[in-house]
Specification:
The chain has twelve helices and ten strands. It has about 350 residues and is an alpha/beta fold. α1 (about 30-40) links the parallel β3 (about 15-20) and β4.
């Protein structure tokens, strides 16, 4: 397993991170623990969760994923595992958090309460990486960054990061930290995949120049790149099959991931993978972690049999001819996720 430093911090992580957002919904606790064990045995020691997991967010589920991860964490030496979790952003916009009666924000009150609750569920006295799950552009970045810095100084957080942030928001936060002399974001966790390369437009340059590491999520484009939604298929139990039936925000999200352009590009990437003698899961994971601004790629699984193709990408470097073929698809089918 390859390793890389998170931003300018002292923390080095495996270049594959196991995400946990379906633990407690798509995977029961026993299955979740087996996935965590097999990942650890394969050399993955970086695990990502959030106070708002599992998905889709439900108040009765809120925090369940952290509890599942926390019970597994007790079976390991704490220092050999890197744990990342997140505090919910504001609930008055696109997303409503399942935490704190949907009254979340990135102010001192909410951040402090969220971290204390996460530490209790995880059964640890610190988290290695604490992230803002989505931005709060209505709260002053000064308050957010000062609060996070106080929690680092208290020994409850090692480093901090953001998620689903804009280029403007990332630069605004870094400027606030530099001006105040407090901790900076070391990582950014945004959607980035073969079907969604918008991160490369601006955020990649910001990361490289500012020493911030990307830890992209959804390298399989929410499972679309596996081909399971090809030709209008809506397999039982699949995430976007469920979201389409749920309607509302979930259905809108499903349409972004599953549409004519994403299916067309997926089929092209599947052919590239087949020609290279690997699964498209392996191709997509290897491609994601091969970017210079990426420290670790966050993958996910709900079944143990999904792990082999992910693990096959651990030490794989794609050849220039494969990268050229991928870029050709991107140029022909531009921004399939909008």
């Amino acid at each position: 397993m390859q390793f890389k430093r998170l931003g300018r911090s002292p923390i080095q992580v495996s270049k594959i991170c196991m995400g946990t957002m379906t633990f407690g919904s798509g995977a029961d606790e026993a299955t979740s623990h087996r996935i965590l064990d097999k990942s650890f045995e394969a050399g993955i020691h970086f695990f990502d969760t959030a106070e708002n997991y599992p998905v889709p967010p439900k108040e009765e589920w809120a925090g369940l994923t952290e509890e599942i991860v926390g019970r597994w964490l007790k079976t390991k030496r704490r220092d050999e595992v890197i744990i990342a979790t997140k505090v919910s952003g504001p609930s008055h916009g696109w997303i409503k958090s399942a935490q704190r009666a949907g009254m979340t924000a990135l102010d001192r009150h909410n951040i402090t309460r969220a971290l204390e609750a996460s530490l209790k569920r995880l059964g640890t006295d610190y988290v290695d990486l604490y992230q803002t799950h989505w931005p709060d552009h209505g709260t002053a970045y000064e308050e957010t960054m000062e609060t996070l810095d106080e929690l680092i100084r208290a020994g409850k957080i090692r480093i901090i990061g953001c998620s689903n942030e804009t280029t403007w928001g990332l630069m605004k936060s870094l400027a606030a930290s530099d001006r105040l002399g407090v901790a900076r974001y070391q990582t950014i966790q945004n959607n980035h995949s073969l079907n969604n390369r918008r991160f490369e437009d601006e955020l990649a340059a910001a990361c490289n120049h500012e020493g911030v590491s990307s830890i992209p999520y959804s390298p399989l484009a929410g499972g679309v790149l596996s081909g399971k939604y090809n030709d209008g298929a809506t397999p039982d139990g699949a995430r976007f099959s469920n979201y389409i039936r749920m309607g509302g925000r979930q259905a809108v999200m499903a349409q972004r991931f599953v549409n004519d352009k994403t299916i067309a590009s997926t089929k092209r990437f599947q052919q590239i993978a087949a020609d290279a003698g690997m699964s498209v899961v392996t191709l997509a994971t290897a491609w994601s972690k091969q970017h210079d601004f990426v420290a670790s790629t966050i993958v996910g699984a709900t079944r143990e049999d999904q792990l082999a193709d992910i693990f096959a990408a651990a030490d794989l470097t794609l050849e220039p001819a494969i990268l050229k073929a991928i870029d050709a698809v991107t140029k022909e089918i531009l921004y399939p996720m909008g």
